[in-house]
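Let us work through a complete example step by step.
Step 1: write down the sequence.
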Amino acid sequence: MKNIFLFLFLTFSLLGYSQGNYVHSITKKQQFLNLAGKPLTDKFTNMKSVKIVYDYNSKKMYFFNSTKYTYHYEFCVEVLGYAQDNGEFNKRSYNPTNNRDYLLANINYLEDSDDWVMELAASDEMNAGLINFFYKEVSKNVFFKDKLKFYLNSPHVIVLNSKNQLKIPTVFSDFIFKRITEQSIENANNVGILKKYDLQKKEDFNPKSDEIIIINTTPEFIPTVKGIIITELQTPLSHLVLLAKNRNIPVYVDTKVWDKQSVNNLLGKKVELITKENSYSLKASQKPIATKKAVKEIILQKDLSVTDLIDLEKATPLNIVHSIGSKATNLGLLKQIQKEMKSFKTPEYAFAIPFYYFDQHIKENNFQDKINALYAIPKDSVKLLEKELKVFRKTVKNSKVNPELLKKIEEKLNAQTDFKNFRFRSSTNAEDMEGFNGAGLYDSKTGIIGDADKTIEKAILDVWSSFWNFRAFQERDLFGINHESCAMGVLVHRSFPDEKANGVLVTRNLYRDQYAGITVNVQLGEESVVKPEPGVTCDEFYCHNFNFLGSFVVDYRSTSSLNKGKPILSETEIKKLFDISPVLERKMYLLWQKRKMAKRSYPLDIEFKYLGEQKQLYIKQARAYMD
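Step 2: predict the structure and record it as tokens.
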């Protein structure tokens, strides 16, 4: 009798174990939800995922508990008895042959749209025959087989699909990206008064510093507020994201928040906003609104002794950053690295107009009294400050550049005959610096040699005047930067009228931080990546070496709305970016360290372009990425 009880106990224990840890088929949604965990990558917020193993030898399907088993390998070892190490498992599980023990995948569920997507690891080189077979086996064992799609998340499967080798329903990244309704931007918490601003109707946008705001499109600047909920999905390298991270305020995307009655009921009330990795909460609160802490005034170094244009094609002097600003200095350093690496180009005929001429322009035009009046405007008189800054910018734009300076610049530009169009870019000592990103605060303009409209003088004045942009003035104030210690240099180089693609990358894998790699946003032609038009998406992906074995992985998060779902860059072009990034990061840090421009090593925020029919890689900018 004891043996019978023991047998029954073991049988029911094993049955309970299997039901809690895996099933062979999913017949209802609750089964899926019981097994679901979060995907291995953080590229999509608020998505539920279940991992799958198909045992190729026993012909059995396993949908397993994806919270208990983080990786497929763990499940195969603990449940299926796999005896080899992780490296051997990866070799046998992700290769292009039929010589496999297991077929591995995830099923991702988008609850808001009730969509189901089957996804291979981006490192998986599974051939088309096995993909078709695997998809069909999964379909046989799930109740949502008519809704199941196969996700084209890597160059490998995109190529198979383009050759019509996949005989199954397929979708690109934008299928998922356009269906997600939430996105975590910056995880933090704050208390404030909840207000709503309809930016699509161009209404006044001057929120108070004690507000948590809901907005329905991406603003040109981030106001000084306690937190932001926005209805528009963001790329991780947009100006809004970079500035939000710099400020460390809670920022979250909820595409449906505008019409949520539970949220609208809180308008005008004191609330607490808590943003997390996969969710946010917004509730009425009795907590006090934190008063702004007095920030220690920051006095920046400003050297006005340099009175010549600085040729960035030559070696960059050690302390020149205090005379021409970070952006121009960084391009000079990039040019030094370019000469060593020879694997990319930088903008030709680059030089810098030092701070001296900005300071002289203020003195020669007797602007100082007007500037002092701007500083005297009370901080809470936001509308008055915005109005007066606009008036002063117009005054600067209507002034005249010193004829001697203009002559120097025109002589330098006319000394070459390769280009007529030149880009004039801000290079202050209050941007691209350690602890202060300053993304998008100032303006860049194009000047064309001999053009009556886009004159060199106009380009210089437009850039100088942007020193008094409201968003720039406000951001400097917020961080306690003394305005008088700031100055505007101008970086000049040839412009790029023949862009096949432009992009931004960070030398860090932002979605799988256990792997070293890069995260890339790239767009077709000249369309902006960091400030896109509403509804326009770019190619966004991360890449890394898988399992440290040299296998190059590219995993797409979104695809460009301008390129019919096709990848903008080839795998070779992506690999080039991937290969040069760590070298560039290391070399830039050594040069910064030598010039005391950084106290520690940072990932790089790199702007790049591919030009012409040959798609020549240009690196236009590299600065520290501060998360």
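Step 3: interpret the result. The first helix runs from residue 2 to 21.
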